UniProtKB/TrEMBL annotation, chain B:
Subunit structure: UreD, UreF and UreG form a complex that acts as a GTP-hydrolysis-dependent molecular chaperone, activating the urease apoprotein by helping to assemble the nickel containing metallocenter of UreC. The UreE protein probably delivers the nickel.
Compartments it resides in: Cytoplasm
Gene source species: Micromonospora rosaria
GO molecular function: nickel cation binding
Its job: Required for maturation of urease via the functional incorporation of the urease nickel metallocenter.
Family: Belongs to the UreD family.
Organism domain of life: Bacteria
Keywords: Chaperone, Cytoplasm, Nickel insertion
GO cellular component: cytoplasm
Protein name per Swiss-Prot or TrEMBL: Urease accessory protein UreD
Automatic annotation (TrEMBL), chain C:
Gene name of this polypeptide: ureF
Quaternary structure note: UreD, UreF and UreG form a complex that acts as a GTP-hydrolysis-dependent molecular chaperone, activating the urease apoprotein by helping to assemble the nickel containing metallocenter of UreC. The UreE protein probably delivers the nickel.
Gene3D superfamilies from the UniProt entry: Urease accessory protein UreF
PANTHER family per the UniProt record, alphabetical: UREASE ACCESSORY PROTEIN F (PTHR33620:SF1)
The organism's place on the tree of life at top rank: Bacteria
Keywords: Chaperone, Cytoplasm, Nickel insertion
Subcellular location: Cytoplasm
Keyword Cytoplasm: yes
Alphabetical list of InterPro entries matching this protein: UreF (IPR002639), UreF_sf (IPR038277)
Pfam families: UreF
Purpose of the protein: Required for maturation of urease via the functional incorporation of the urease nickel metallocenter.
Protein source organism: Micromonospora rosaria
Protein name: Urease accessory protein UreF
Family, as annotated: Belongs to the UreF family.
Gene Ontology CC annotation, any one: cytoplasm
């Protein structure tokens, strides 16, 4: 018998996320610019590195931006992108308003996006090192892969966790096709649920198929246009980060949270 | 033919430059033509056409502290075939002392069909000296494929390597006219500018994509490098 | 493992030292419209082998030689300065050091006992040929094998970039490399011989367009290759 699935969020085609929008009427403070609001990490603490992979256009950069928004006042962030990186991309992330463009490093992949994140990870590791050399200790480094196909995954030598982003517009058959990204990523994000009615994608089918493919591994349905901070994904990252820190503190090699 | 010429410059004590040695032999004769401010101006007066394969020409230049010299040649030198199996050599060696200035701005070297030519520059520059060094190579006379020519440049600054480059063209140099080296351009050259108290400017590429300004690693020096369709265009990129 | 297997491992483009992301100047040459097809790719590879290929192979061989010398650190520092003096374009110096850093990362992980502490790293990392020389010495390769590895990589990297950028027939590109094999062997032999000379006399074969292309490439907003 299949083990009891971990609570996997249900499809939310209506866009109800349960996360309040940023409300300026509620009293709160913004951190002083120029003052690092974060408590220093333990010296041994290494940033949690999270890979974000998935097919072209599924919403990886949008998810990076959403997570930057979510963690802006909470974590010391760095981003490495293997995307074909234009100033528009930089502008996009800058406009997302929460990440200093210097904290984004682009890695050229020589037309082999999967090689750069899987077989030959040095340039990505260099980029992570450079971020840490420039900004000191970080809590979280997001590594966006170049848009690839369903077979691309990150090496465990590069990232601690990986998120695979597919979208409903690719068709509700995608989870059924499987591939290492869908079956083995630590988190599967099925994005653009707002488009499901328009493209005739059946979210129930996608949910059923991803459960079948992924066993216990979690899947999140998301619409970034409706949930600008990707609340469930951010929560998952927080949870993984807590595990990562605990593992670092006890010196146990970081495994899956 | 073998010839040696020698030029030694000292300050004249009145803010100008005195040439204490200015000796040559045909076809390598030196003439002082005047001065521009404190800078003494010297021309190398080539006698006949050449050099021919087998010729061995050497020019030694020394500029001591406080002196400044600018050296030109009156005409392009055309490297021509000569004795079978032989090479023509033109070797310029220079020492520039602290606080001295040397500007080596000769006319082009033309590698004629069938030539076998080696042009060698060895320059030792002391800390605090100023140097301008230009080399221009035209690959073949009008509509002609060049023979073998090698331009070899070695510049040390304060005893440390500043620039080493060997540009080879002709039948013995694989791929020389191809897209990795000259891209079919018949003219190429470089201008090295070393100013002790002026930091090199950042890299810049001419909009035509055939010339660039390259700050060097070993000191406050810039190499201008260019390829061009003709000598005139080349020169426009390499005016100091 | 015999040394020849190690030679194949080190020379293999799949050795994780970042080769896949470098086109050896080809992306810029394609962008400038100078390489468009098999014939121009062949000419590009020939010129690159005779210039960057020879210099890189000679410095790799010289570093291999330095590895066993008493004044190893001093020699490596000198080789570093000599290679800088042969690399007029800042963009190319950066690329060489970046590739050196990638190779060093792989080398340290694969040969943890080999020492690299005396490699000069100012300017963003050690020059790639120096790392290659020390690494192949640590792996027990000979000096000629070291030079061959370096020469070989300067053409194979650019050739495979040609397949990816121009959509060329991979069989015909491979045939180009076969045509180039003898020249590659000769270049490696010349580099190995030169490595016996004092550092200032090492080959300095220059290519004006390689410098210019590299600086143009560095200004592109979107690059598929790191060089
Ligand atoms: N309707 C809708 N559009 C979205 C959503 N998420 C992202 N998009 C849009 O999808 C397009 C592609 O998003 P990106 O984030 O650039 O996708 P990507 O995966 O980074 O793309 P590549 O890096 O090119 O592979 C953009 O126009 C986004 O605005 C979503 O939830 N709903
Ligand atoms: Mg993207």
């Amino acid at each position: 018998m299949r083990p009891e699935p971990t609570p996997s969020p249900r499809p939310q085609p209506t866009g109800q996320t349960g996360y309040p929008e940023h409300d300026e009427t509620v009293p709160h403070t913004h951190p002083e610019p120029g003052v690092d609001p974060h408590a220093p990490l333990a010296a041994a603490g290494r940033a949690l590195r999270v890979g974000i992979g998935g097919p072209v256009g599924s919403g990886k950069t949008a998810l990076v931006a959403a997570l930057c928004r979510a963690f802006a006042d909470e974590l010391r962030l760095g981003v490495v992108t293997n995307d074909i990186y234009t100033t528009e991309d930089a502008d996009f992330l800058r406009r997302a308003g929460v990440l200093d463009p210097d904290r984004i490093r682009a890695v050229e992949t020589g037309c082999c996006p999967h090689t750069a994140i899987r077989d030959d990870i040095g340039a990505n590791l260099d980029a992570v090192d450079e971020l840490e050399e420039t900004f000191g200790a970080l809590d979280l480094v997001l590594v966006e892969s170049g848009g690839d196909n369903l077979t691309a995954t990150f090496s465990r030598g590069l990232v601690d966790r990986q998120i695979f982003v597919v979208d409903v517009a690719g068709g509700d058959k995608v989870p059924r096709k499987g591939g290492p990204g869908v079956t083995a990523a630590d988190l599967l994000v099925i994005n653009k649920t707002d488009l499901a009615p328009l493209v005739g994608a059946d979210l129930q089918v996608m949910d059923r198929d991803s459960r079948a493919r992924r066993g216990d591994l979690p899947t999140v349905f998301l619409s970034i246009v409706q949930d600008r901070q990707a609340g469930q994904v951010a929560d998952w990252v927080r949870h993984e980060l807590a595990h990562h820190r605990a593992a670092q503190a006890t010196g146990v090699p970081a495994g899956r949270g | 033919m073998r010839a040696v010429a020698r030029l030694v410059a000292h300050p004249d004590g009145r803010g100008g430059t005195r040439l204490t040695e200015l000796a040559g032999e045909p076809p390598l004769l030196l003439r002082r033509t005047g001065h521009r401010g404190p800078v003494a101006e010297v021309y190398v007066v080539g006698a006949a056409a050449g050099p021919l394969a087998g010729d061995d020409l050497r020019l030694e230049i020394e500029v001591t502290t406080g002196a400044a010299v600018r050296v030109h040649t009156v005409a392009a030198s055309v490297a021509l075939p000569g004795r079978v199996g032989a090479t023509s050599r033109m070797m310029v060696s220079a020492r520039v002392h602290p606080g001295a200035a040397l500007h080596w701005l000769p006319e082009q070297t033309v590698a004629a069909a069938g030539c076998a030519h080696l042009a060698e520059s060895r320059v030792e520059v002391a800390e605090g000296a100023t140097l301008t060094w230009r080399d221009e190579l035209i690959c073949g006379r009008h509509a002609e494929e060049p023979g073998d020519a090698v331009l070899h440049t070695v510049v040390d600054l304060a005893g440390r390597p500043l620039l080493r480059q060997t540009l080879a063209v002709g039948p013995q140099a694989p791929g020389w006219s191809g897209p990795a080296v000259l891209g079919g351009a018949p003219a190429t050259g470089s201008l090295l500018v070393l100013h002790p108290d002026r930091p090199a400017d950042p890299p810049w590429v001419h909009p035509g994509g055939t010339a660039a300004r390259l700050p060097l690693a070993g000191g406050p020096a810039t190499l201008w490098t260019a390829t061009a369709p003709d000598a005139h265009t080349l020169r426009s990129h390499l005016e100091p | 493992m015999t040394p020849s297997t190690l030679l194949l491992l080190l020379a293999d483009g799949r050795f994780p030292a970042g080769a896949h992301a470098h086109s050896g100047g080809l992306e810029a040459a394609v962008g400038a419209g100078r390489v468009t097809d098999l014939a121009t790719l062949a000419a590009f590879l020939r010129g690159r082998l005779a210039t960057a290929g020879l210099v890189g192979a000679a410095f790799a061989a010289a570093a291999h030689r330095a590895a066993g010398q008493p004044d190893r650190a001093g020699l490596l520092a000198l080789l570093d300065a000599e290679l800088d003096a042969r690399t007029a374009a800042e963009a190319l110096r950066r690329v060489s050091r970046r590739q050196g850093r990638a190779l060093l990362r792989a080398g340290k992980a694969v040969w943890p006992t080999a020492g690299f502490a005396d490699l000069p790293t100012a300017g963003g990392g050690p020059h790639q040929p120096l790392v290659l020389g020390l690494l192949s010495a640590a792996a027990g390769l000979t000096r000629p094998e070291t030079a061959l590895t370096a020469a070989y990589q300067t053409v194979t990297g650019a050739a495979s970039a040609g397949v990816r950028l121009l959509g060329l027939d991979p069989y015909r590109v491979q045939a180009l490399l076969v045509d180039l094999a003898a020249a590659c062997d000769r270049t490696a032999a010349e580099a190995d011989r030169a490595a016996g000379e004092p550092p200032w006399r090492l080959p300095a074969a220059a290519a004006p367009l390689a410098d210019i292309h590299a600086e143009v490439h560095a200004t592109w907003e979107v690059r598929l290759f790191a060089s």
